[in-house]
Amino acid sequence: MTDTDENRLSLMVWLKCCQRLGRFPRLAEIPPQVISHVRDELGLTEDVGMAVVAERTGRNHKALVRARLGLDGDQANARKLADQAIRQAARTKDHPADLINVALEELARNSCEFPAFSTLDDLAAQVGLREG
Prior knowledge:
Layout: H1 5-21, H2 32-42, H3 55-69, H4 75-89, H5 96-109, H6 117-131
């Protein structure tokens, strides 16, 4: 699915990160140890680094990862589901971390790609302000 070792490494790092995190982290968020481990597992030499892929290639890689993991990448839908889950949980919970955990569980149950933490944090804060 890729034409260079750098792109293969990038694709596999995105796959492994998305499997664990439920989202695509920014390149700066990925620890070098993770990249090194994936590189070693692929049998690539140390001079192969994470490619800064073209926008089109990045979209293709993310589409491949989403298809492989069965993830829905619709962020508007993910925000809507998270908002609904947080509103419902706010009836019995008031700690933002609890509200965010409920949202994450609902997103995982619906095979949604997770939005950024700041999005969930903002949703929890907004519900807290409306409820309070």
